[in-house]
Amino acid sequence: MNDWIRVFDAANSLEAHALKGALESRGIDVRLKGEALSGALGELPMDVAQITLLVSAGNWQQAREFVQHYQHKEDGSWFCRACGEENDVSFEICWQCGSGPEGPE
Ligand SMILES: [Zn+2]
């Protein structure tokens, strides 16, 4: 049995996907709940309802620590939209994959 537990409520699809990518890059599987409204469009609308991130029980503690770290970021760091990697504010493109803050070309 594999329980999925809420770890974070994202304000929008973009944030949800950024966090999902970042967690998955750390080996944590993530499910998104509440995305049905926008799923068929293939876009990431900014104004959809809140999206809940779920992780399996075994990953919850690690995911929670990461999310808390993410939430407390106020130094301008950003998460790559293409690969989910965290980038320091001084980087204009993702050090991991070379994408800009606005995503891949
Ligand atoms: Zn990247």
Short characterization:
By secondary structure, the protein is α+β, with helices and mostly antiparallel strands.
Give the SSE string. EHEEHEE
Globally, the shape reads globular
Oligomer: single chain
Strand content range: 15-25%
Number of strands: 5
Our count of helices gives 2
Helix content: 10-25%
Class of secondary structure makeup = alpha+beta
Distinct small-molecule ligands in the complex:
zinc ion
The top level CATH class name of the largest domain: Alpha Beta
- The whole-angstrom Rg is 14 Å
What does this structure look like?
- There is one protein chain.
- By secondary structure, the protein is α+β, with helices and mostly antiparallel strands.
- It has two domains: 4-72, 2-Layer Sandwich (Alpha-Beta Plaits); 77-105.
- It is built from two helices and five strands, in the order βαββαββ.
- It has a three-stranded antiparallel beta sheet with strand order 1-3-2, covered by helices on one side. Strands 4-5 form a two-stranded antiparallel sheet.
- A hairpin with a 6-residue loop joins β4 (78-79) and β5 (86-87).
- The longest helix is centred in the N-terminal third of the chain and has 12 residues, at 13-24.
- The protein is globular, with a radius of gyration of 14 Å.
- The model has no long low-confidence stretch (mean pLDDT 79).
- InterPro entries: DUF2007, DUF7577.
- Residues 76-100 form the DUF7577 domain.
- This is DUF2007 domain-containing protein.
